[in-house]
Amino acid sequence: MTLLQLRYIVKIVECGSMNEASHELYISQPALSSSVKELENELGIEIFTRHSQGIALTVDGAEFLTYARQILDQTDLLEARYKQVRPRKQLCRVSTQHYMFAVEAFVEMINSIDSDEYEFTIRETRTRDIIDQVATLQSEIGIIYESDFNKRVLSKMLREKHLDFHPLFRADLHVFIARTNPLADRAMVTMKDLEPYPFLQYEQGEEGSFYFAEEAVWPDYSPKQITVSDRATMLNFIVGLNAYTVCTGIDNEDLNNEKIVSVPLESDESMLVGWIVNSRTKLSHAAELYLDKLRQVVSSHGYSLIEQESDK
């Protein structure tokens, strides 16, 4: 086993494909595949599964990647100390449901980083993809919510993928509606009140189900229903179509523009928002910093943190 082979494995995971990794490493794909296969044979494990859509880390591969990154981090520290070469870039990758507070915290994290070089990624994506990306270490942290409705299904999936859920805060349900909506001045609205308006929900893919929905509740019947994949489209439809969506209620300056308002929704359900992490990994410094900023942002919006000190 060589350091070069370890760097190959890390680069393949970062790129998500053998082909792209070979281009960035300036070697041929057959040579890269052969090197990985030699390492797998030497260790007696399978690091990647190969299929028509690409590659994915196995359980053994995810564990191996954790050790490989630790070795490379220590190697880079040695090189920086004795060879006076530049240390590795700060890295942090986060996958999240479509939460503005998650992006706000990401901005705060980047602004506070004391580094000349960094490489950060934040993905607002589907619930199942968030879980898969953290399980395969494509992201260090995932941000999702649990409810009484989806908790059993999500908890089972997280256990199977060796992921830990850390509660962050609990939010009563709200809806985002246009400030021009007749319901905008209400102290609280019901699903019955919202019947005349288009219901907006985030797309969860062909394998999606109600258990993976970002909306904790939805109308029993909605004659006007629109599925979207990104937050900007969602906000535009709320204003342009006088539509609504169910949310935590946390807004920020994106919403505080006299166009959209958050109104409490009458419901027995709530959202337990938290972050997930692969139980076999140790978070990077940048990821820990992101979590600190996430806690600060949530607190600044008036929500009480509920995670235990041991989770920090």
Automatic annotation (TrEMBL):
This entry's Gene Ontology molecular function terms read: DNA binding; DNA-binding transcription factor activity
Its Gene Ontology cellular component terms are: protein-DNA complex
Q: Which domain of life is it from?
A: Bacteria
Arranged from A to Z, the UniProt key words for this protein are:
DNA-binding, Transcription, Transcription regulation
Record-annotated HTH lysR-type domain positions: 1-58
Question: Record's InterPro entries?
Answer: LysR_HTH_N, LysR_subst-bd, WH-like_DNA-bd_sf, WH_DNA-bd_sf
Q: Does the keyword Nucleotide-binding apply?
A: no
Which Pfam families is this protein grouped with?
A: HTH_1, LysR_substrate
Alphabetized PANTHER family for the sequence: HCA OPERON TRANSCRIPTIONAL ACTIVATOR HCAR, TRANSCRIPTIONAL DUAL REGULATOR HCAR-RELATED
UniProt lists the family membership as follows: Belongs to the LysR transcriptional regulatory family.
Listed name of the protein: Transcriptional regulator, LysR family
* Organism annotation: Bifidobacterium asteroides
